[in-house]
Amino acid sequence: MAAPKKSRGAAGGQGRPGRSLALILIAMVALTGGMFLADQPTPRLGIDLAGGTSITLEAKSEPGQESAINKTNMDTAVQIMERRVNGLGVSEAEVQTQGDRNIIVNIPKGTNSAQARDQVGTTAKLYFRPVLTVAQGTPTPKPSASSSGKPTSSGKPTSSGSPSAPTADKGKSSATPGASATTQGRAVTGALKTDTTPTPKASTTPKADATPSASAADEAAAAKLQKQFAELDCSSKASRAEAARGAKPTDTVVACSSEGDAKYVLGPSEVSGTEVDNAKAGFDQQRGMWIVNMEFTKKGSKQFQTITKKLSAQQSPQNQFAIALDGEVVSAPQVNTTLSGSAEISGSFTQQSAEDLANVLSYGALPLSFKEQSVTTVTAALGGEQLQAGLIAGAIGLALVVIYLVAYYRGLAFIALLSLLVSGILTYTLMSLLGPAIGFALNLPAVCGAIVAIGITADSFIVYFERVRDEIREGRTLRPAVERAWPRARRTILVSDFVSFLAAAVLFVVTVGKVQGFAFTLGLTTLLDVVVVFLFTKPLMTLMARTKFFASGHPWSGLDPKRLGAKPPLRRSRRVNAPTEPKEA
Fold this sequence. Notes:
The protein has 17 helices and 15 strands. The chain is α+β, with helices and mostly antiparallel strands. The chain has a five-stranded mixed barrel with strand order 4-8-7-13-12, surrounded by four helices. Strands 2-3-1-15 form a four-stranded antiparallel sheet. It has a three-stranded antiparallel sheet with strand order 10-11-14.
């Protein structure tokens, strides 16, 4: 008679448990070693546990744009701020709206909080505008016979105190003679009277179709702009902010350089910062300075090519285009040839300031302007007390689980406790490594998720133990019972963990802020539960079934057949045929 066939899964699991145990042991050693090599022996802590900085930003309405402060723009601002902060590598930062006009930004201690504070409220509205005229940043003196002020077309002072011309082509520049205060005023007037888009043939010639009323309006606007330009003091931060306030892309405006040493009259925007596809900081070896390289979209590239073609045919300073960020000119290079596809911003950048500018440009401009309303330092005292209370609750829960396992499962509790220890080591090392890898930070909800995971992991052990006990009650010995119980227990464990993981995934997607920490931790520990049960608990149970203590059904093993009410062993009985009586003749 042929022997009954054994399933490949049962045979494999019974024959090679050492391989699975060795695999998970190697994984634990590798993760622990990686944790110390990464110099991250502990998980990163969130703001509620480590403390940090809380920034309150209030949306400001521009004149005539009060309706711009709405839910759509506020939500867009939150998303852009989150991307900016994450781009700096700040972990566990929280950005959320409060009321109709405020946004709260929480930045944990120990991260790039100073950089993040500088960037979250920066509007980062970038425009490329043609330069109509330029002067020194101080107020222009009234014209007089002895006036000799000769500002030039630059933003940087030379040795004689006059600004020198910024460059567009790898640092090549030429100083442009300046103009007197009277000439500057005429330049402003002429800029408004003419088409503000530079062309090779027209710079100061009035439009032929201008009507008398339009000319009068232009004269009034020119006079107002001339006065504003002459009185503008770029050395004052308040004056620079006032000049930048309310400037529209379609307007001819006055603006200061970011360093305050030059002031400009700028024409309407020719290319918007929304057409910047990517921005990166880099170091120019030839000039020995940090710059920001920008790549344009297809539309932006065409616009940039058009404007540089027109500007390259102009005389200085009208062959310059100003790169205006939030109303201040960060660079005003000259254009000597047609450019397309990319551009660079140069200036007095440090590595950090160049990287900061590239970061804010890469993630777009905020739809609103914001004012920093308050900055408060959050201490970890309250969070520490809550963490201590949570850890005490977790310790009590774990102790109750251990007491239950020892009282009910006796020797099997040893296997369960070792499995919990392995799960704890894997969870701790992964949380530590995920901090620098993806910015994960441990907060109070995440701690709650880890505590809940204790019950999920223990539930998997209980399912398997009960399946083994059911097989013993049916009269089977331990080793066959362990292998026969596994397929049934495995199916139940996978279904249960799938439901838990699905719930964690849905919670992570539909929530924001700290609740995502709970969902992430719950999902992570659920996945680890599957790994531990398959690669540690089952192989260890197979090995323990070979020992005399468990195989003999010791009363303290938790698998005593008598205590479980086992049936007599199942035996096969041969079928005995009744003797047949001889047939009568």
